[in-house]
Structures are given as C-alpha cells and as structure tokens.
Design goal:
Layout: E1 2-7, H1 10-13, H2 16-20, E2 26-33, E3 40-41, H3 44-47, E4 56-61, H4 65-72, E5 79-83, H5 89-99, E6 102-107, E7 125-129, H6 144-157, E8 163-167, E9 183-186, H7 188-191, H8 196-204
Parallel strand pairs: 1-2, 1-9, 2-4, 4-5, 5-6, 6-7, 7-8, 8-9
Antiparallel strand pairs: 2-3
The protein binds D-xylitol-5-phosphate and zinc ion.
Zinc ion (ZN) binds near residues 6 and 59.
C-alpha cells in the first residue's frame, strides 16, 4: 500500500519539506480553482516555491484542466489527476501522455462509475473520491468501498493496469476498508499526527 500525503490548505504548504523528510511515497497536491469546487487551494503561484524534487501526485479539482496541466507540468509530477466530470477528457488524457506524465482520472462520490469505462484502458490511475471534492477533514463515505472493489475486479477481468487510489477520510479506522486500493491519499490523519512516521506505518499496515 503506497501513501500519498495530501497538502490542501496553504498553511500546510510550509510543512511540505518537513513531511517529505518522512518519505511518504507521494505528496498529493490538492489544486482547487473555486469553480469546479467552491474552494481555492494550492494555486501554482502560491505553492511552487514550496516544492522541491519529490514524487508529486497532483490532484486537479479544476474546470480548465489544460491551463492547470500547463502550470503543474513544470514541477515534473509523477501523476496529474483531473476529474472525469470535466470537458475534453480524451484530449487531456492525450495531452498528458504527450507530456510523458502519468494520467489519473478522479471520480466524485455521486458520479456514476460507468462514466470511467471509456477511459480505463488509457489511464494510469483512478482516484476514487471517498469524500466530496473540495475540503479536507471530512468523514469517509462508506459507499466508496464497493466502488474500489468494482474497479479492482474490473481491472483483473479486463487485464488492465490502472492503479486504484482512494482519497478522503483515510485514517487508522478506515484504512481496513480499502485494502484493494494500491495508493491511499491521507491529509488530516497524517498531518495532524504528532508522530508522522507512526501514522504512515499504520496506513502501510506495518
Ligand atoms: C479533498 C481532497 C483530499 C483531502 C484529503 O477535496 O481531494 O485530498 O484533502 O484530506 P483528508 O485525508 O483530511 O480527508
Ligand atoms: Zn485530493
């Protein structure tokens, strides 16, 4: 199980360097434009000076996906994930491939998972939102478990290779529900923990 520690609000940006010292597998950067979600976070000019050379997992909760791809490609991210609920999904998948950046598609809790079907053989990661996109510190939505397991079975049945990542409300209590995920994104549970190493180990199951 790989861990991606989410940085959402700008007060956390000062802690990115500190968190990277604990070697999470990824740092998850939650980018919000105030249009796709009614919150603004981690805009490129606000966050760029706090980033180093790390495994960045950029989560775009934005309307104008291409604009933000063109900004965040500059930090040489491992993944850029955008939402399947946006327009021009195919074009943006192809654009990321051309840039050589791994492609993630995120899906909100109340979006029918069938919306992903046309893309699953083209992408590197599915980000199953287990909270409503827009804010950290929300409760894990239990329906997410079925969605993860459906994607897990579909991947085997169709011999596909996308990674399954789950994002939101992941902590010591909910980690047991998401064992079929490859990556878990966790914000408040890790960041607010006085012992970051032990929080990471709990999520890793060690
Ligand atoms: C929500 C973000 C999540 C969130 C995770 O829109 O995409 O990454 O910040 O934070 P926690 O782990 O606190 O739910
Ligand atoms: Zn996120």
């Amino acid at each position: 199980m790989k861990i991606s520690v989410s940085i959402l609000n700008l007060k956390e940006k000062n802690r990115i360097k500190e968190i990277e010292l604990h070697r999470p597998d990824y740092i998850h950067i939650d980018v919000m434009d105030g249009i796709f979600v009614d919150n603004i976070s981690c805009l490129y000019n606000d966050i760029k000076n706090y980033l180093n050379d790390y495994n960045y997992d950029v989560h775009l909760m934005v309307d104008d996906v291409k604009k933000y791809i063109d900004e965040f490609k500059l930090i040489n991210p491992k993944y850029i994930t955008f939402h399947v609920e946006t327009n021009n999904v195919d074009d943006n998948i192809n654009y990321l491939k051309k840039l050589g950046i791994k492609v993630g598609l995120a899906i909100n809790p109340n979006t029918d998972i069938k919306l992903l079907l046309p893309y699953l053989d083209k992408i590197d990661l599915v980000l199953v939102m287990s909270v409503q996109a827009g804010y950290g510190g929300q409760e894990f939505i239990m329906d997410s478990i079925d969605r993860i397991n459906t994607l897990y079975k579909y991947r085997i049945k169709n011999n596909l290779s996308y990674k399954i990542s789950v994002d939101g409300g992941i902590n010591d209590k909910t980690i047991k529900y998401v064992e079929n995920a490859d990556i878990v994104v966790s914000g408040s549970y890790v960041i607010n923990n006085s012992d970051i190493d032990s929080a990471l180990n709990v999520l890793r199951g060690v």
